[in-house]
Design goal:
Layout: H1 2-7, E1 30-38, E2 41-48, E3 53-57, E4 63-76, E5 79-84, E6 88-91, E7 97-112
Antiparallel strand pairs: 1-2, 2-7, 3-7, 4-5, 4-6, 4-7
């Protein structure tokens, strides 16, 4: 039962929490924390240290990126977007995309599988 609580963000079940406080920055790396992991979709919190990146890849589903803190470069189909705290972007399914931390940033990645 504890595994399921952790997988589904037990810390958030029926209570408020500041998402930005659930993952801290660690120099030279990317920290991730799964909030929801269900057959129908996932919600994952990421904290990127400055300069860290996810290399170009594709996903079979649309994904919403919401920036909680900092600034990211999101590259979709070769087009670079600067995304800041409080902003969001949808990365369309089957389109190549990558992310880079312009400076430390935290994001929530929501993927709905359909």
């Amino acid at each position: 039962m504890e595994d399921q609580k952790e997988k589904t963000g037990g810390i958030l079940m029926a209570r408020a929490a500041n998402l930005s406080e659930l993952a801290g920055y660690q120099e030279g790396t990317i920290v991730s924390r799964t909030i929801i992991d269900q057959k129908t979709g996932t919600v994952t919190l990421f904290a990127f240290a400055s300069g860290q990146r996810l290399s170009e890849h594709t996903a079979p589903y649309d994904a919403l990126v919401y920036i909680l803190d900092g600034e990211a470069e999101v590259i979709i189909d070769g087009q670079s977007l600067r995304v800041h705290q409080g902003e969001a972007v949808i990365m369309p399914a089957n389109h190549p995309h990558a992310l880079r931390a312009v400076k430390n940033f935290k994001m929530v990645l929501t993927m709905i599988r359909s």
